[in-house]
Design brief:
Blueprint lengths: L2 H50 L3 H14 L3 H14 L10 H14 L6 H78 L1
Helix pairs in contact: 1-2, 1-3, 2-3, 3-4, 4-5
């Protein structure tokens, strides 16, 4: 074998070794990535099962962990969406519309190009209207309480006036009786004086 053939064979062997090393590194990296993705997918499925079995508080904890720790956008965005949805779910006794609005707003800022963005924007509109309605209702409720308090005060004032009037009326009747008695005594005295 000539020098150039040996060099050529050596170069080919070296190239084959490098390609084998690169492929094994890439496969190892893919396996690591797949395990990493699999872990968060499994954690998301676990959180979903907690949600479906009405363990809302535990599901919230799991979704929050995924959102805070996972850098895989599709999984993190799913967890973020579910945090918002969890807080508006009709059967959740811990539902919190303000928290849902915060979570959906955060989703909108973090994932503006996500497939669920239109749905999230609709939820934000609905929750904003509900929040506005709640403020208006609270304001109206406070006004009604003030009106009711004023009505009670007027009723109490009326009752006080009525009691004063009845007392005054009774005193007047009593005075009329006293006047009649005194008039009778005066008439007696006058008739005695004439005799």
């Amino acid at each position: 074998m000539t020098y150039s053939t040996r060099t050529h064979t050596f170069c080919l062997a070296l190239l084959a070794a490098m390609l084998t090393a690169l492929i094994s590194i890439q496969c190892g990296s893919s396996k690591t990535t797949m395990v990493y993705h699999g872990h968060y997918r499994q954690q998301l499925m676990h959180a979903d099962s907690l949600f479906r079995t009405d363990n809302f508080e535990l599901a919230k904890v799991e979704y929050t962990k995924i959102r805070d720790n996972c850098d895989i956008q599709i999984i993190a965005s799913s967890a973020q969406y579910r945090l918002g949805y969890l807080n508006i779910y009709y059967d959740n006794p811990f539902a919190d519309y303000e928290a849902a609005l915060r979570e959906f707003t955060l989703f909108q800022s973090l994932y503006p190009n996500d497939d669920k963005i239109d749905l999230v924007r609709n939820w934000i509109r609905i929750l904003t209207v509900l929040q506005s309605f709640a403020r208006d209702y609270n304001s109206s409720s406070q006004q009604m309480e003030k009106i009711d308090e004023r009505r009670k005060n007027i009723f109490n004032d009326y009752k006080t006036l009525q009691d004063a009037y009845l007392s005054c009326d009774a005193t007047r009747d009593s005075l009329k009786n006293e006047i009649k008695v005194l008039q009778g005594l005066i008439d007696k005295l006058i008739s005695m004086d004439k005799k």
